[in-house]
Amino acid sequence: MGFAFPAGRRPERTGRVSPASLLRRTPAPGDVASSLVADFRSTFTRTLPYRFVGELRACELCGGDRHEVVGRRDRYGNRLRTVLCRGCGLVFTNPMPTDEEVDRFYERHYRNLYHGAYAPTPKAILKARRGALARYEDLRRFLPATGRVIDVGAGSGDFVHVLRSNGIAAEGIEPNRAFAAYARRTYRAPIHAGGWQDVSIPPESVDLVTANHVLEHFRNPLAALWRMHSWLKTGGLLYVAVPDIENPDRTPYGRFHVAHLYNFNRASLVMMALRAGFAIDPASGRSTDLMLRKAPQPASDWLIFPDNHERLARFFSRFTNRRYFLSPTPYRRWVRRMARLGGVMAAAQFRALPDAGTAGVAQGAAVDDERKRG
Ligand SMILES: [Zn+2]
After folding, report:
1. Which CATH architecture has domain 121-304?
2. What is the 92 CA–ligand 1 centroid distance (Å)?
3. Structure pTM?
4. What is the pLDDT of residues 105-124, one digit of tens each?
5. Would the pLDDT of 358 be above 60?
6. CB neighbour burial string for 296-328, b if at least 16 within 10 angstroms, e if fewer
């Protein structure tokens, strides 16, 4: 089966990058073979426990030290202590791994994932490219015709590449050296190799910063937001998206991941943004995807959801594994998955028939199915 683009996401042909041209740039056969091996190995190694001593921390958002434990395991069953702050409802790993331990984790994690391969896996590349094009479509009305865009956590550089192909001066910041090197080699994209702390960007020089699913990995997300705030011109924009801990489609046992040091809901993300000096733009999504505008000064009354702790305590006590498996959700999900698989198989069978008219109908159904999934 090919990697069809969800029809609703297809960019208009005004830009210089089409999905087809981006996807045609496939990795060399050598890269594919070595990264397939890496992909296979990582299936076994990524569930291995990562042990760290860490340090007990006060809450990054409100400074409070009254916390209650809401998780003792990660999604692979390894020990991971997660707490809920009674002051503001921020959910985070505590003890928190130290800077050195985080560095070690990423080194080991990426060694496990890429084992001698000098590039991300083909599967990851395709996923990243599709994501980059979808993100470009979502954000294009905010993109400055002239001006500077910075993508924090640029990964393999796909989003930076899509922006630059459409005439926008974009750069990336990526702490993983293999990814940064891949981005430079494949796209000639300007990527600063390092963390947000290491990069020197002149204050008030940037029009738009994007941080897509990176904030939850940082040890100091509030400090990171402050730094991004300093890069932006007055009125400049920050697009930030993180996983939503309250997402009802997420299974309770899959809730916590060792790499996610913070687990936001909309309220805690909004409050952190206010505290860092941003105003919430009406273009923000309804979940944990926000469009933020640099405000002249940080809000002093940022604690606008004082009941967030109660709300999340209720959520954690109600949404347990036991309740989840007693509810119709997992079974409905399984039925949907089976139906989808059946549709794809039926479409493949129809395609094999000589009657072009029938095949067209079946392919249409498969495209519809693909669209729903995207
Ligand atoms: Zn707090």
Report:
1. 3-Layer(aba) Sandwich (3.40)
2. 10
3. 0.78
4. 777 665 555 444 445 677 77
5. no
6. eeebeebbebeebbeebeebbeebeeeeeeeee
